[in-house]
Amino acid sequence: MKTRITELFGIEHPLVLPGMTYISVPELVAAVCNAGGLGIMASGGMSAEQCRSSIRRIRELTDKPFGVGVSLIMPGAKECAEVALDAQVPVINFSLGKGDWIVQRAHAYGGKVIATVVTEKHARSAAKMGVDALLVTGHEAAAHGGEVTTLVLVPAIRDAVELPIIAAGGFAGGRGLVAALSLGADAVALGTRLAASRESPLHDNTKQMVVAKQVDETIYSKNFDGLPCRVMKTPAAERITAKPRGLFSAVWSALQVARELKTPIPRLLRDLFAQGLKATLQLAYFGAASLAIKRAIMFGDHEQGVQLIGQAQGLVRDVPSVAELFANVMSQAQSVRHDLALLAGKTARVDELV
Ligand SMILES: Cc1cc2nc3c(=O)[nH]c(=O)nc-3n(C[C@H](O)[C@H](O)[C@H](O)COP(=O)(O)O)c2cc1C
């Protein structure tokens, strides 16, 4: 299938692995690229050296285009962006910050830039920065989807800017892909769906929980990491999101995480205070949440751990390989488009729809 996104990035399918900390690792990124999609590595929590070696690892595993995601508010993210730019990574995806300098540097070597946005205002300002595409994240998404549902947000942003759009939030199969295209998107990001694929490093216990959970078994709350965030509904998540976390406990947990990640504390403090008090407090909440996220993802621990997950978990009923998943998604999309053409009274041949 050809869309503006497949043409822009030189990929076969309009399917994207978004950046997911601890999940979008080189092996999963390469599996997605080798299956014809665009894999975006998550750099959250990585040092510059880890970022450099992960990019090297992706290049050992695939010769296809790939991306690196940077959440600019996070400590160390700018350094990872520098590493990715120096390594001339084909696609950089930035979020939570101003990425005009990334656009300039990437365009100088022919790289492309995607901005993640959750409002029309952010979409317009990203367009002004000169980005090549938008990743538009609606309310259904895992983690920090917007206040507005994908169904409404994507066409609103389609009307606001000309840029190609990757729609994110609630997509798990071919029906969703066709729906996204009809809303004006040019591709979909599959976060929750790819987190439960065979090549994903998500713990097997957690993969089985994703398969078992329904669409309404998530919680969307500010009390987990300080921003509205969607997580899997479990007794631990209900307990943790019952009330806002105290500042002292957030700072304490954030320092524990920094120690675990071997982030030098003086550098962390310098990065934090450079961003102002509000961002510093926000980062303390992120830091505190990242311990719980790591427990669920790496150890399948749902007593203390909390799993970021989207409503699309209720559409996930198996754990296929990425290649199998993409074949199923594209074949379902083809049959939906065929049915729609029949509904419209056309006698289109299936091969004309591909
Ligand atoms: C397990 C998991 C971890 C995620 N981690 C991050 C993250 O670290 N940073 C981020 O900006 N988004 C993160 N996300 C959100 C995805 O980038 C993406 O926006 C979302 O998954 C799309 O919605 P979907 O889950 O309905 O496909 C994560 C999603 C999942 C499922």
Count of distinct strands: 10
Q: Cα distance, first to last residue? A: 6 Å
Strand order of the largest sheet: 1-2-3-4-5-6-7-8
Strand/helix succession: HEHEHEHEHEHEHEHEHHEEHHHHH
Bound molecules: flavin mononucleotide
Beta-strand content: 5-15%
Task: Indicate the percent of residues in helices.
Answer: 40-55%
Globally, the shape reads: globular
* Helix/strand structural class: alpha/beta
Mean pLDDT: 92
Radius of gyration: 19 Å
What is the number of helical segments per DSSP (H or I, 4+ residues)? 15
Please mark out the parts with pLDDT under 50 across 5 or more consecutive residues, or reply none: none
Main sheet overview: 8 strands, parallel, barrel
Q: What's a concise summary of this model?
A:
This protein has 354 residues and is α/β, with parallel strands linked by helices. Helices cover 47% and strands 12% of the residues.
Question: How would you characterize this protein structure?
Answer:
With 354 residues, the protein is α/β, with parallel strands linked by helices. It starts with a helix and ends in an 11-residue tail after the last helix. Helix content is 47%, strand content 12%. The strands form two sheets. The protein has an eight-stranded parallel β-barrel, surrounded by six helices. A two-stranded antiparallel sheet has the order 9-10. The longest helix has 23 residues, at 277-299. The chain has 15 helices and ten strands. α12 packs across α14 (277-299). A hairpin with a 7-residue loop joins β9 (218-221) and β10. The model has no long low-confidence stretch (mean pLDDT 92).
